[in-house]
Amino acid sequence: MGCLLLALSGGLNTLAFAPYTLWWLPIFSLALLVYFIQRATSPRQACLYGFSYGLGWFGVGISWVHVSIADFGGLPLIASLSLMLLLVSYLALFPAFAAWLTLRLKQPKYMPLLFAASWTLAEWLRSWLLTGFPWLSLGYSQTSAGLQHYAPLIGETGISFLLAFAAAALAQAFTLQAVFARYSYIVIAGIIFILSPFLQPFKGWQNTAESVSVLLVQGNIKQALRWEPDQEWPTMLKYLDLTRPHFQADIVIWPEAAIPKLEPLADAFLDNLNQAALYQNTAVISGILDYNAKTGEAWNNLIVLGKKTKHAKEGDYHYGHANRYSKHHLLPIGEFVPFESWLRTLAPIFDLPMSSFSRGAYVQPNLEANGHHFLPAICFEIAFPQQIAANFTSDTEILLTVSNDAWFGDSIGPQQHLQIAQMRALEFGRPLLRATNTGVTATINASGQLQQRAPQFSATVIKDNIQLTSGMTPYQVWRDWPLRISCMAIFIVILFSRRRHRDLLTTQTK
């Protein structure tokens, strides 16, 4: 009964994230998990409670992944559902680990701190193992309310720690007998939430007097047609036709792989676009795939065409030029296939078009377009703040992410993806542009607020003026190191306390 209740609680946790944004929900949902952990009779039972919570959390929260498996995977329903169950079960191992560790090191008076540190450790592992899948991390629920003002200080990971602490403090209020011990942590958690709006002066960045006019183009090309050879020119001309009436913008952004023709084979179109952008006194940043026939390597790239600097007299683009970005964090199955030699023979999902890319470097120069510096991330990469931090420079003016969420249809996946992008703007104090094939295309200011968003599944453009900012957020300077050190200190204190308690018991029994 407890496992079923926790699975339902985990499933409800999905409502905390976009598009529902019930930001207060994780406190109560997670508090129920902690309540059951405290009553578990063994670490194994606590692990089962955490696993049940995770099954509900990810089973509902990332159910949108099944859209791509069912529509493009070529698998029978039972096989696609089994694959989803495998993915959800893997992700549920991480809250299971957090629950196991919390009971294994159980110290009632330190429970909120212990659970928060255990949860943070588990979430760090989830963001790293097997290339990482940090989707639905709790802190994203606070993007528009609640603890959002902590983001420039401690980032999304720090906010997740605070949410886990608050949830455990709430659960402890129904467990301990001593009044002070029961309510002291709740008071601290309440102060944390009350302080949030007063933290704005410490965000570390400020607006400048400069703004940039931008044009984001959403082509709305059906996924089934994107890689059809006879659709290459119609797709490229569609993007050009959508752009041409608005070429007066400083910067034009096309989404991931907007140009469906391989870069070495698209020279005529690219040369024309390069000259057109130069003539219109602008720059175009577009996604395109590059392929080296000699080595067999392929890259998922962003390239800049037209003006690199404001005073440029020639178009910047030529094949192989350095003003480009190659995607580093590749998506398993979608962009590379682990154990490729035998997995590709099992089912069509392991042999999707364009699913064997090479990685770009972890740190790459920012893109420069019409005198402005963009820190790029392609699709899934925007979910990794450490990669963004590693590529952030003193010249970085705008964060840029491009994607193709057509894989996931009319699901909540693209909405969650947009929310993740909003958090990156909050953390780094820079405006963010998000251009996608089918939506959600949007402009986001440095406070993480949506300025404009395009309707999904429409061929349209967004025109906007982006206010530039300067300065560095504390999170950009310190990243997650204060949180990691704090969690390490919590574990050390608890281990020392447990050892001291054992020594005391040993002395008393002699």
TrEMBL record:
Summary of the function given for this chain in its UniProt record: Catalyzes the phospholipid dependent N-acylation of the N-terminal cysteine of apolipoprotein, the last step in lipoprotein maturation.
Pathway involvement of the protein, from the record: Protein modification; lipoprotein biosynthesis (N-acyl transfer)
Highest taxon of source: Bacteria
Coiled coil: none
The protein, known as: Apolipoprotein N-acyltransferase
Gene Ontology CC, one term: plasma membrane
Keyword Oxidoreductase listed: no
Listed InterPro entries: Apolipo_AcylTrfase, C-N_Hydrolase, C-N_Hydrolase_sf, LNT_N
Places the protein is found: Cell membrane
Record GO biological process: lipoprotein biosynthetic process
Family in the record: Belongs to the CN hydrolase family. Apolipoprotein N-acyltransferase subfamily.
